[in-house]
Design goal:
single chain, alpha+beta, 8-stranded mixed barrel, 6 helices, 41% strand
């Protein structure tokens, strides 16, 4: 039976109109089965589509299921913030000063900070060195020389990201990926901007062709994974701004803040489409 459900499409990590990464949010997904959710995610053809459900954990305000065109994820960053934004805008009221989202990765805390939302980065499910053969495959698919890669690491916090730090933000932007050669590898790049003329400290790109997302415009989970890895191993600031989406004509901005207890990953969220969807 087809039911009309509240729906929103939210621009996340935006720095101006339609400059971030959109997420489709179905605000009352009760009664939908896995196949229906997956089919709608394929139809929207966005990086992610989410479905808001009543929580099963009393500590949570709501439960979220997150789908790419290629399948379900236990966690993703821009869908977390976009869904929280849509839930609040539709009348959701958190139990406490923070919002608590239940998802496949457990409970995710989201805070409101002025006109921004930010989530506390979940722990990495996998970290450590990348196998040399895998790293060589990735470098070849991205047209990188060994000297272009300063460091590499698994930064898997739900999506199975492999992170590469390149020599500069400019080198990140120069990459022209061979998506077919990249295969099922989910790869993120980060490089520091140096000198004047930049409103961001780092440039980030994300590739996940195996999930139906050749390049993701702005990626909360990857930025959280990078911050978790690099804050522990490299000399990077406790607070910084990452630009993402530049190579795609977007102007996403991700704000990272390590308060000594949690690493917060946030940005601006704006509803661009609201209404209903028949599912």
């Amino acid at each position: 039976m087809v039911t009309s459900r509240s729906f929103a499409q939210v621009d996340v990590f935006e720095s101006g109109p339609i400059s971030g990464n959109p997420v489709a949010v179905v605000l009352d997904a009760r009664g939908l089965d896995d196949d229906q959710m997956a089919a709608f995610a394929r139809w929207t053809n966005l990086s992610e589509t989410t479905f808001v459900l009543p929580p099963t954990d009393a500590a949570a305000d709501y439960r979220l299921r997150i789908f790419t065109p290629g399948g379900e994820l236990p966690f993703a960053g821009h869908p977390t913030l976009g869904s929280a934004h849509a839930w609040l805008e539709s009348g959701g009221r958190p139990h406490a000063d923070v919002i608590v989202q239940e998802c496949g990765a457990g409970l995710i805390t989201i805070r409101r900070d002025g006109d921004q939302l930010a989530f506390a980065a979940p722990p990495l499910r996998r970290s450590g060195p990348v196998d040399a053969e895998v790293l060589a495959e990735i470098r070849a698919a991205l047209g990188l020389h060994p000297s272009d890669v300063v460091a590499s690491n698994w930064v898997d916090n739900g999506p199975g990201w492999i992170g590469l730090m390149l020599t500069s933000g400019e080198r990140v932007l120069e990459v022209r990926p061979d998506h077919a050669a990249l295969g099922d590898h989910e790869v993120g790049l980060i490089g520091a901007h140096r000198g004047a003329g930049h409103d961001a400290d780092y440039e980030v790109r994300a590739f996940a062709p195996g999930d139906g997302v050749p390049e993701d415009p702005v990626t909360g989970s990857l930025n959280a994974g990078f911050a978790t890895w690099l804050r522990a191993t490299e000399e990077i600031p406790a607070r910084y701004v990452a630009a993402q989406g530049t190579a795609m004509g977007r102007a996403g901005r991700v704000f990272v803040d390590d308060d000594g207890t949690d690493i917060w990953v946030g940005g601006a969220t704006v509803s661009t489409i609201t209404g209903t969807v028949d599912l």
